[in-house]
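Could you help me review a protein record that somebody else here produced? Do not assume that whoever made the record got everything right. The record follows directly below this note.
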Amino acid sequence: MTPTRLCTSNHFACLSYARLVIGHSENSKLSSWNNVISLTYSTIKGNNGDLERSTILNFKRIRCSGIRSLELTYASLFKACASLLALEEGQQIHVDCFKHGLGSDVYVRNTMIHFYGSCKKIIDARQVFDEMLYTSVVSWNTIISACFRVSRFYESVEYFKRMREVEIEPDGTTVVVMLSVCAELGNLTMGKCVHTLLIEKGFELSCQLGTALVNMYAKCGALNWASLVFDKMPDRNVWTWSAMIQGLAQHGLARHAISLFKKMKDASIQPNHVTFLGVICACSHAGYVEDGYRFFEEMKCVYGIKPRLTHYGAMVDVLGRAGHLMEAYNFIVNMPIKPDPTVWRTLLSACSVHSGSDFDKVGEKVQKKLLELEPRWSGNLVMVANKYAEVCKWEDAARLRKSMRFKRLKKLAGESCIDVKGSTFRLLSGYDSQATCVGIYLLLDGLSLNMKINNP
Protein backbone atom coordinates (compact mmCIF):
# COMPACT_ATOMS: atom_id res chain seq x y z
CA MET A 1 0.00 0.00 0.00
CA THR A 2 1.37 3.44 -0.94
CA PRO A 3 1.58 6.29 1.59
CA THR A 4 -1.17 8.13 -0.32
CA ARG A 5 -3.58 5.19 0.02
CA LEU A 6 -2.59 4.93 3.67
CA CYS A 7 -3.63 8.56 4.21
CA THR A 8 -7.00 7.92 2.65
CA SER A 9 -7.76 4.97 4.85
CA ASN A 10 -6.36 6.17 8.15
CA HIS A 11 -5.25 9.75 8.72
CA PHE A 12 -3.51 9.31 12.02
CA ALA A 13 -1.71 6.15 10.87
CA CYS A 14 -0.43 8.19 7.95
CA LEU A 15 0.97 10.86 10.25
CA SER A 16 2.69 8.26 12.41
CA TYR A 17 4.15 6.67 9.29
CA ALA A 18 5.42 10.05 8.11
CA ARG A 19 7.12 10.75 11.42
CA LEU A 20 8.78 7.33 11.30
CA VAL A 21 10.18 8.10 7.84
CA ILE A 22 11.54 11.42 9.08
CA GLY A 23 13.32 9.70 11.92
CA HIS A 24 15.29 7.60 9.39
CA SER A 25 15.98 10.42 6.96
CA GLU A 26 18.07 13.13 8.61
CA ASN A 27 19.09 14.69 5.29
CA SER A 28 15.52 15.56 4.39
CA LYS A 29 14.23 16.92 7.71
CA LEU A 30 13.32 20.28 6.23
CA SER A 31 11.01 19.06 3.47
CA SER A 32 9.76 16.07 5.45
CA TRP A 33 8.54 18.00 8.49
CA ASN A 34 6.93 20.64 6.31
CA ASN A 35 5.23 17.89 4.33
CA VAL A 36 3.90 16.40 7.58
CA ILE A 37 2.29 19.74 8.46
CA SER A 38 0.73 20.11 5.03
CA LEU A 39 -0.37 16.47 5.12
CA THR A 40 -1.88 16.93 8.57
CA TYR A 41 -4.02 19.87 7.48
CA SER A 42 -5.10 18.18 4.25
CA THR A 43 -6.82 15.48 6.32
CA ILE A 44 -8.77 17.79 8.61
CA LYS A 45 -12.37 17.18 7.59
CA GLY A 46 -14.52 15.27 10.01
CA ASN A 47 -12.02 14.95 12.85
CA ASN A 48 -13.47 17.51 15.31
CA GLY A 49 -10.38 19.72 15.33
CA ASP A 50 -7.93 16.99 16.37
CA LEU A 51 -5.88 17.29 13.20
CA GLU A 52 -5.82 21.09 13.32
CA ARG A 53 -4.31 20.84 16.78
CA SER A 54 -1.90 18.22 15.47
CA THR A 55 -0.85 20.65 12.74
CA ILE A 56 0.06 23.30 15.30
CA LEU A 57 1.80 20.73 17.51
CA ASN A 58 3.96 19.56 14.60
CA PHE A 59 4.95 23.17 13.93
CA LYS A 60 6.10 23.52 17.54
CA ARG A 61 8.26 20.43 17.02
CA ILE A 62 9.78 22.06 13.95
CA ARG A 63 10.61 25.21 15.86
CA CYS A 64 12.15 23.24 18.74
CA SER A 65 14.26 21.27 16.26
CA GLY A 66 15.57 24.43 14.62
CA ILE A 67 14.25 23.44 11.20
CA ARG A 68 13.32 26.27 8.83
CA SER A 69 9.69 26.40 7.71
CA LEU A 70 8.41 26.89 4.17
CA GLU A 71 5.64 29.16 2.81
CA LEU A 72 3.27 26.22 2.42
CA THR A 73 3.80 25.37 6.09
CA TYR A 74 2.54 28.76 7.24
CA ALA A 75 -0.43 28.62 4.89
CA SER A 76 -1.51 25.30 6.44
CA LEU A 77 -0.97 26.69 9.93
CA PHE A 78 -3.12 29.77 9.33
CA LYS A 79 -5.90 27.57 7.94
CA ALA A 80 -5.73 25.38 11.03
CA CYS A 81 -5.81 28.40 13.36
CA ALA A 82 -8.77 29.82 11.44
CA SER A 83 -10.66 26.56 11.83
CA LEU A 84 -9.94 26.45 15.58
CA LEU A 85 -10.39 30.23 16.04
CA ALA A 86 -7.00 30.04 17.77
CA LEU A 87 -6.22 33.76 17.77
CA GLU A 88 -3.22 33.76 20.11
CA GLU A 89 -1.48 30.88 18.33
CA GLY A 90 -2.17 32.45 14.95
CA GLN A 91 -0.71 35.77 16.04
CA GLN A 92 2.45 34.03 17.24
CA ILE A 93 2.72 32.20 13.90
CA HIS A 94 2.20 35.53 12.13
CA VAL A 95 5.21 36.99 13.97
CA ASP A 96 7.32 33.91 13.23
CA CYS A 97 6.36 34.05 9.56
CA PHE A 98 7.54 37.65 9.15
CA LYS A 99 10.58 37.02 11.31
CA HIS A 100 11.78 34.51 8.72
CA GLY A 101 10.89 36.72 5.76
CA LEU A 102 8.10 34.52 4.42
CA GLY A 103 5.20 36.95 4.82
CA SER A 104 5.25 38.35 1.28
CA ASP A 105 3.90 35.23 -0.42
CA VAL A 106 0.38 35.86 -1.80
CA TYR A 107 -0.92 32.45 -0.75
CA VAL A 108 0.36 32.93 2.80
CA ARG A 109 -1.14 36.43 2.95
CA ASN A 110 -4.50 35.14 1.74
CA THR A 111 -4.64 32.49 4.46
CA MET A 112 -3.54 35.10 6.98
CA ILE A 113 -6.46 37.36 6.01
CA HIS A 114 -8.80 34.38 6.24
CA PHE A 115 -7.46 33.59 9.71
CA TYR A 116 -8.00 37.11 11.06
CA GLY A 117 -11.40 37.30 9.38
CA SER A 118 -12.48 34.00 10.96
CA CYS A 119 -11.43 35.35 14.37
CA LYS A 120 -13.40 38.57 13.63
CA LYS A 121 -10.26 40.71 13.84
CA ILE A 122 -11.21 42.75 10.81
CA ILE A 123 -8.74 45.58 11.46
CA ASP A 124 -5.84 43.10 11.38
CA ALA A 125 -7.27 41.44 8.27
CA ARG A 126 -7.52 44.79 6.51
CA GLN A 127 -3.98 45.73 7.51
CA VAL A 128 -2.58 42.50 6.09
CA PHE A 129 -4.51 43.05 2.85
CA ASP A 130 -3.65 46.74 2.46
CA GLU A 131 0.06 45.97 2.85
CA MET A 132 0.02 43.46 -0.04
CA LEU A 133 2.04 44.57 -3.07
CA TYR A 134 0.36 42.03 -5.33
CA THR A 135 -3.19 40.72 -4.96
CA SER A 136 -5.13 37.97 -6.67
CA VAL A 137 -8.88 37.46 -7.01
CA VAL A 138 -8.62 35.14 -4.00
CA SER A 139 -7.14 38.00 -1.95
CA TRP A 140 -10.07 40.26 -2.77
CA ASN A 141 -12.63 37.51 -2.17
CA THR A 142 -11.07 36.80 1.22
CA ILE A 143 -11.13 40.39 2.47
CA ILE A 144 -14.68 40.96 1.14
CA SER A 145 -15.80 37.78 2.91
CA ALA A 146 -13.99 38.84 6.11
CA CYS A 147 -15.90 42.14 6.17
CA PHE A 148 -19.16 40.33 5.45
CA ARG A 149 -18.53 37.88 8.30
CA VAL A 150 -18.47 40.71 10.86
CA SER A 151 -21.45 42.51 9.27
CA ARG A 152 -19.38 45.35 7.81
CA PHE A 153 -21.39 45.25 4.62
CA TYR A 154 -20.52 48.73 3.40
CA GLU A 155 -16.83 47.91 3.69
CA SER A 156 -17.42 44.80 1.57
CA VAL A 157 -18.98 47.05 -1.06
CA GLU A 158 -16.01 49.43 -0.96
CA TYR A 159 -13.53 46.59 -1.46
CA PHE A 160 -15.61 45.26 -4.34
CA LYS A 161 -15.53 48.70 -6.00
CA ARG A 162 -11.75 48.90 -5.48
CA MET A 163 -11.41 45.42 -6.96
CA ARG A 164 -13.20 46.55 -10.12
CA GLU A 165 -11.10 49.74 -10.28
CA VAL A 166 -7.82 47.78 -10.33
CA GLU A 167 -9.31 45.51 -13.01
CA ILE A 168 -9.25 42.26 -11.05
CA GLU A 169 -11.78 39.99 -12.72
CA PRO A 170 -14.36 38.62 -10.26
CA ASP A 171 -15.11 34.92 -10.15
CA GLY A 172 -18.07 32.88 -8.94
CA THR A 173 -17.05 33.28 -5.30
CA THR A 174 -16.99 37.07 -5.65
CA VAL A 175 -20.49 37.05 -7.10
CA VAL A 176 -21.90 34.80 -4.36
CA VAL A 177 -20.42 36.93 -1.54
CA MET A 178 -21.54 40.21 -3.11
CA LEU A 179 -25.07 38.89 -3.62
CA SER A 180 -25.11 38.02 0.08
CA VAL A 181 -23.91 41.55 0.92
CA CYS A 182 -26.66 43.09 -1.24
CA ALA A 183 -29.22 40.84 0.44
CA GLU A 184 -28.20 42.04 3.91
CA LEU A 185 -28.20 45.70 2.82
CA GLY A 186 -31.45 45.34 0.91
CA ASN A 187 -29.68 47.04 -2.01
CA LEU A 188 -31.67 45.80 -4.99
CA THR A 189 -29.94 48.11 -7.48
CA MET A 190 -26.48 46.77 -6.68
CA GLY A 191 -27.87 43.24 -6.55
CA LYS A 192 -29.14 43.62 -10.11
CA CYS A 193 -25.73 44.98 -11.16
CA VAL A 194 -24.03 41.90 -9.71
CA HIS A 195 -26.60 39.71 -11.50
CA THR A 196 -25.76 41.52 -14.75
CA LEU A 197 -22.06 40.89 -14.09
CA LEU A 198 -22.84 37.21 -13.63
CA ILE A 199 -24.52 37.11 -17.05
CA GLU A 200 -21.78 39.15 -18.77
CA LYS A 201 -19.08 36.79 -17.49
CA GLY A 202 -21.05 33.79 -18.69
CA PHE A 203 -21.12 32.10 -15.31
CA GLU A 204 -23.22 28.96 -15.26
CA LEU A 205 -26.26 29.22 -12.99
CA SER A 206 -25.01 26.69 -10.48
CA CYS A 207 -26.97 25.72 -7.41
CA GLN A 208 -24.81 27.99 -5.24
CA LEU A 209 -25.11 31.02 -7.53
CA GLY A 210 -28.82 30.47 -8.07
CA THR A 211 -29.47 30.19 -4.35
CA ALA A 212 -27.55 33.42 -3.72
CA LEU A 213 -29.65 35.17 -6.37
CA VAL A 214 -32.93 33.87 -4.96
CA ASN A 215 -31.88 34.93 -1.46
CA MET A 216 -30.87 38.42 -2.62
CA TYR A 217 -34.06 39.10 -4.58
CA ALA A 218 -36.25 37.64 -1.84
CA LYS A 219 -34.66 39.70 0.95
CA CYS A 220 -34.85 42.84 -1.20
CA GLY A 221 -38.58 42.27 -1.69
CA ALA A 222 -38.35 41.52 -5.43
CA LEU A 223 -40.29 38.27 -5.10
CA ASN A 224 -41.18 38.12 -8.81
CA TRP A 225 -37.49 38.11 -9.71
CA ALA A 226 -36.76 35.58 -6.98
CA SER A 227 -39.47 33.27 -8.32
CA LEU A 228 -38.20 33.70 -11.87
CA VAL A 229 -34.66 32.66 -10.91
CA PHE A 230 -36.00 29.87 -8.71
CA ASP A 231 -38.11 28.42 -11.53
CA LYS A 232 -35.25 28.60 -14.06
CA MET A 233 -32.69 26.84 -11.88
CA PRO A 234 -31.85 23.38 -13.26
CA ASP A 235 -30.85 22.10 -9.82
CA ARG A 236 -32.18 23.19 -6.44
CA ASN A 237 -31.11 22.05 -2.99
CA VAL A 238 -32.60 22.54 0.46
CA TRP A 239 -30.95 25.96 0.79
CA THR A 240 -32.57 27.17 -2.44
CA TRP A 241 -36.03 26.11 -1.29
CA SER A 242 -35.42 27.58 2.17
CA ALA A 243 -34.36 30.96 0.73
CA MET A 244 -37.53 31.17 -1.34
CA ILE A 245 -39.74 30.08 1.56
CA GLN A 246 -38.15 32.63 3.91
CA GLY A 247 -38.57 35.39 1.33
CA LEU A 248 -42.27 34.67 0.96
CA ALA A 249 -42.69 34.46 4.73
CA GLN A 250 -40.89 37.75 5.43
CA HIS A 251 -43.11 39.63 2.99
CA GLY A 252 -46.41 38.37 4.34
CA LEU A 253 -47.16 35.66 1.78
CA ALA A 254 -47.68 32.96 4.39
CA ARG A 255 -49.94 30.71 2.33
CA HIS A 256 -47.51 30.79 -0.59
CA ALA A 257 -44.63 29.92 1.77
CA ILE A 258 -46.52 26.97 3.28
CA SER A 259 -47.61 25.79 -0.18
CA LEU A 260 -43.99 25.91 -1.39
CA PHE A 261 -42.94 23.95 1.69
CA LYS A 262 -45.37 21.19 0.68
CA LYS A 263 -44.00 21.20 -2.87
CA MET A 264 -40.50 20.89 -1.46
CA LYS A 265 -41.44 17.75 0.46
CA ASP A 266 -43.20 16.36 -2.62
CA ALA A 267 -39.91 16.85 -4.51
CA SER A 268 -38.22 14.58 -1.92
CA ILE A 269 -36.10 17.45 -0.57
CA GLN A 270 -35.69 16.99 3.17
CA PRO A 271 -36.13 20.28 5.06
CA ASN A 272 -33.53 21.53 7.51
CA HIS A 273 -33.58 23.93 10.46
CA VAL A 274 -33.62 27.00 8.17
CA THR A 275 -36.63 25.70 6.25
CA PHE A 276 -38.65 25.21 9.41
CA LEU A 277 -37.64 28.63 10.69
CA GLY A 278 -39.09 30.07 7.48
CA VAL A 279 -42.44 28.28 7.71
CA ILE A 280 -42.83 29.06 11.43
CA CYS A 281 -42.15 32.73 10.69
CA ALA A 282 -44.77 32.54 7.95
CA CYS A 283 -47.27 31.32 10.53
CA SER A 284 -46.25 34.20 12.78
CA HIS A 285 -47.00 36.88 10.17
CA ALA A 286 -50.33 35.29 9.24
CA GLY A 287 -51.49 34.45 12.75
CA TYR A 288 -51.61 30.68 12.16
CA VAL A 289 -51.09 29.47 15.72
CA GLU A 290 -52.15 25.85 15.18
CA ASP A 291 -50.03 25.55 12.03
CA GLY A 292 -47.07 27.01 13.92
CA TYR A 293 -47.37 24.35 16.62
CA ARG A 294 -47.79 21.65 13.97
CA PHE A 295 -44.62 22.62 12.08
CA PHE A 296 -42.69 22.95 15.34
CA GLU A 297 -43.66 19.41 16.37
CA GLU A 298 -43.07 18.06 12.86
CA MET A 299 -39.55 19.43 12.93
CA LYS A 300 -38.80 17.56 16.16
CA CYS A 301 -40.76 14.33 15.80
CA VAL A 302 -40.79 13.66 12.05
CA TYR A 303 -37.41 15.00 10.94
CA GLY A 304 -35.49 14.71 14.20
CA ILE A 305 -34.27 18.30 14.07
CA LYS A 306 -33.49 19.69 17.51
CA PRO A 307 -35.05 23.15 17.81
CA ARG A 308 -32.62 26.01 18.23
CA LEU A 309 -33.13 29.21 20.17
CA THR A 310 -34.29 30.94 16.98
CA HIS A 311 -37.07 28.37 16.55
CA TYR A 312 -38.28 28.91 20.11
CA GLY A 313 -38.15 32.65 19.53
CA ALA A 314 -40.20 32.24 16.33
CA MET A 315 -42.84 30.26 18.24
CA VAL A 316 -42.99 32.98 20.91
CA ASP A 317 -43.57 35.44 18.07
CA VAL A 318 -46.37 33.24 16.68
CA LEU A 319 -48.14 33.23 20.04
CA GLY A 320 -47.39 36.85 20.88
CA ARG A 321 -48.63 38.29 17.57
CA ALA A 322 -51.85 36.31 17.98
CA GLY A 323 -52.36 37.82 21.43
CA HIS A 324 -51.75 34.58 23.36
CA LEU A 325 -49.52 36.36 25.86
CA MET A 326 -49.87 34.04 28.83
CA GLU A 327 -49.42 31.00 26.60
CA ALA A 328 -46.27 32.56 25.15
CA TYR A 329 -44.96 33.29 28.65
CA ASN A 330 -45.52 29.68 29.75
CA PHE A 331 -43.87 28.50 26.53
CA ILE A 332 -40.72 30.47 27.41
CA VAL A 333 -40.70 29.27 31.01
CA ASN A 334 -40.90 25.63 29.89
CA MET A 335 -38.20 25.91 27.21
CA PRO A 336 -35.47 23.26 27.58
CA ILE A 337 -32.81 25.86 26.80
CA LYS A 338 -32.25 29.17 28.55
CA PRO A 339 -34.04 32.02 26.75
CA ASP A 340 -31.92 34.98 25.74
CA PRO A 341 -32.98 38.65 25.94
CA THR A 342 -34.22 38.56 22.34
CA VAL A 343 -36.86 35.96 23.22
CA TRP A 344 -38.10 38.00 26.18
CA ARG A 345 -38.03 41.19 24.10
CA THR A 346 -40.16 39.49 21.44
CA LEU A 347 -42.85 38.82 24.04
CA LEU A 348 -42.54 42.31 25.53
CA SER A 349 -43.15 43.77 22.05
CA ALA A 350 -46.28 41.64 21.77
CA CYS A 351 -47.40 42.91 25.18
CA SER A 352 -46.95 46.47 23.90
CA VAL A 353 -49.16 45.73 20.87
CA HIS A 354 -51.92 43.92 22.76
CA SER A 355 -53.11 46.31 25.42
CA GLY A 356 -55.32 45.28 28.32
CA SER A 357 -55.19 43.42 31.59
CA ASP A 358 -52.78 40.86 30.17
CA PHE A 359 -50.03 43.44 30.45
CA ASP A 360 -50.41 43.38 34.23
CA LYS A 361 -50.32 39.57 34.21
CA VAL A 362 -47.54 38.99 31.70
CA GLY A 363 -45.92 42.30 30.81
CA GLU A 364 -44.78 43.04 34.35
CA LYS A 365 -43.09 39.64 34.62
CA VAL A 366 -41.46 39.93 31.20
CA GLN A 367 -40.14 43.43 31.74
CA LYS A 368 -38.70 42.45 35.11
CA LYS A 369 -36.88 39.48 33.57
CA LEU A 370 -35.63 41.54 30.65
CA LEU A 371 -34.31 44.34 32.83
CA GLU A 372 -32.48 41.76 34.93
CA LEU A 373 -30.73 40.42 31.82
CA GLU A 374 -30.07 43.79 30.16
CA PRO A 375 -30.28 46.52 32.82
CA ARG A 376 -28.44 49.10 30.70
CA TRP A 377 -30.01 48.50 27.29
CA SER A 378 -31.96 51.68 26.57
CA GLY A 379 -34.39 50.08 24.12
CA ASN A 380 -35.87 47.90 26.86
CA LEU A 381 -36.36 50.85 29.21
CA VAL A 382 -38.01 52.97 26.51
CA MET A 383 -40.33 50.12 25.54
CA VAL A 384 -41.42 49.57 29.15
CA ALA A 385 -41.81 53.30 29.82
CA ASN A 386 -43.99 53.72 26.73
CA LYS A 387 -46.19 50.83 27.81
CA TYR A 388 -46.58 52.34 31.28
CA ALA A 389 -47.68 55.58 29.63
CA GLU A 390 -50.23 53.73 27.47
CA VAL A 391 -51.90 52.17 30.51
CA CYS A 392 -51.77 55.51 32.38
CA LYS A 393 -49.10 54.45 34.87
CA TRP A 394 -47.50 57.88 34.70
CA GLU A 395 -45.44 57.61 37.87
CA ASP A 396 -43.81 54.34 36.73
CA ALA A 397 -43.10 55.82 33.30
CA ALA A 398 -41.55 58.92 34.84
CA ARG A 399 -39.46 56.77 37.18
CA LEU A 400 -37.96 54.84 34.27
CA ARG A 401 -37.26 57.98 32.26
CA LYS A 402 -35.56 59.54 35.28
CA SER A 403 -33.52 56.36 35.74
CA MET A 404 -32.34 56.61 32.13
CA ARG A 405 -31.23 60.22 32.62
CA PHE A 406 -29.45 59.33 35.85
CA LYS A 407 -27.60 56.46 34.13
CA ARG A 408 -26.95 58.65 31.07
CA LEU A 409 -28.66 56.18 28.80
CA LYS A 410 -30.06 57.28 25.46
CA LYS A 411 -32.29 55.50 23.02
CA LEU A 412 -30.44 54.59 19.84
CA ALA A 413 -31.43 56.85 16.99
CA GLY A 414 -33.65 55.41 14.30
CA GLU A 415 -31.81 54.55 11.10
CA SER A 416 -32.95 54.02 7.54
CA CYS A 417 -31.35 53.96 4.13
CA ILE A 418 -32.39 54.89 0.61
CA ASP A 419 -30.97 53.84 -2.72
CA VAL A 420 -30.46 56.60 -5.29
CA LYS A 421 -28.97 55.73 -8.68
CA GLY A 422 -26.97 52.83 -7.25
CA SER A 423 -25.67 54.74 -4.23
CA THR A 424 -26.92 53.94 -0.73
CA PHE A 425 -27.48 56.82 1.70
CA ARG A 426 -27.84 56.13 5.43
CA LEU A 427 -30.10 58.46 7.37
CA LEU A 428 -30.06 58.82 11.16
CA SER A 429 -32.93 60.39 13.05
CA GLY A 430 -32.04 63.91 14.20
CA TYR A 431 -28.66 63.95 12.47
CA ASP A 432 -27.85 65.76 9.24
CA SER A 433 -24.97 63.71 7.90
CA GLN A 434 -24.49 65.72 4.72
CA ALA A 435 -24.62 69.37 3.72
CA THR A 436 -27.08 68.50 0.93
CA CYS A 437 -29.75 68.13 3.64
CA VAL A 438 -30.16 71.91 3.48
CA GLY A 439 -31.39 71.61 -0.08
CA ILE A 440 -33.75 68.82 0.93
CA TYR A 441 -35.26 70.96 3.70
CA LEU A 442 -35.74 73.88 1.28
CA LEU A 443 -37.47 71.57 -1.17
CA LEU A 444 -39.75 70.22 1.59
CA ASP A 445 -40.59 73.75 2.72
CA GLY A 446 -41.46 74.65 -0.87
CA LEU A 447 -43.70 71.59 -1.24
CA SER A 448 -45.38 72.35 2.09
CA LEU A 449 -46.06 75.96 1.03
CA ASN A 450 -47.39 74.81 -2.34
CA MET A 451 -49.82 72.36 -0.64
CA LYS A 452 -51.07 75.09 1.70
CA ILE A 453 -51.71 77.44 -1.24
CA ASN A 454 -53.58 74.82 -3.26
CA ASN A 455 -55.40 73.35 -0.25
CA PRO A 456 -56.16 76.26 2.08
Q: What stands out?
A: The CA atoms of residues 371 and 380 lie 7 Å apart. Residues 1-103 form one domain. The chain has 25 helices and two strands. The longest strand covers residues 415-420.
